[in-house]
Here is the input.
Amino acid sequence: MRFKMWLTVIVFSLFTSVALAQEPVSAPPGFASWEDVLAQANGQTVNWYMYGGSDAINGFVDNFYGPLLAAEYGITLNRVPVADTVDAVNQVLSEAEAGVAESAGAVDMIWINGENFYTLRQANLLYGPWAQTIPNSILVDWENPAINLDFGRPVDGYESPWSSAQFHFIYDSARIAEEDLPRNFAELTAWIQANPGRFTYIAPGPGGYMGTRFVKQIFFEISGGHDQWLGDFNSVLYEEWAPQVWNMLNEWTPNLWRQGETYPANENELRDLFANGEVDFAFTQDISGASVYINDGRLPETARAFAFTDNMIGDFNYVAIPFNAAHKAAALVLANLILRPDLQAAHVLPENGFGLGFGIDVSRVTEEPDRLVLEAAAANLGIGAADPAELAAALVSDLAAEYQTRVEADWEANVLRQ
Here is the structure.
């Protein structure tokens, strides 16, 4: 399972497979056929609400998807940046409460996953099921639990994958030798004690999801493994191990950057501290590790990525369509477009700045030229990328959304305010 998911993440194809000519099993709800979708989409504007905090991802969306939608389908892309995905969710919730008609909503598509997906799914405010009816869905491995479950909850056709990511670290090889890197949280604890002021982490909470993910990984290590945490939220298991997690983090505090009086709020703030030489580690989920940031000058050429030997959370992120989207046809075309192999390839390449991994299963793209490009891809992630085998060995899935909420609230109560 780990090896297969890693292949899904790291390799890509620049060519369109003959498999793309196949038709989906059925038409999306409310449409007679895919041709009907295309006909209705022509002339529409698709309002894609998505996190706007990454200039690189914003640019990729505008420069790659926008022109293709216009030229090939007659669709105008309107990327609507939000500070946090919950803002888009709240827009849909507000419209539902106000009785906005099912064809008059402001939001056509959301970049979404985890608890935000679960919120809308619970409220029955998503259009679908549609994800397995678009043509390029045949390139998705829907049998993979990392795809058909989102934070432990069934996707059930109400969202479609876009890309993938895995937590790991960035360090500067000019400051730290590879053999001196910590490879688990016990070793990190010793490193922090030996290097006071040189480590910090992102504050768990809204906008700080990578900090939440970092803390969840501690639960896995100190409890003896990840698999026991799968499935529905287990309050007994959580309450057993949470005090030990907070104790570990509180033991770190005197030796953290600024003695834990403040924490970076997001990935960008932590990376800036690292780039300025204030701390020795940053976090990343990019398949290319530090390469994107080396390419754009934000990190030195000696920056490299690495993973612990286990418990590095990886997952997929998705797009979903609200129940009342005004331009469902255009949203379906966009969701299909982002799964196209050439565009999946483009978002993997470090020089394009997106940096996340594949959302498709590359074994479903079988033409020989594709395979040659796939082999080349693994060698073109840049000098700042982590060893693929290292990441594959460490890969674990994320958990039910309730853990997210508890970790964030309890970290604030038991660590931040201590």
Observations:
- The first strand starts at residue 45 and ends at 51.
- The chain is about 40% helix and 10% strand.
- Residues 189 and 209 are 22 Å apart (CA to CA).
- The mean pLDDT is 89.
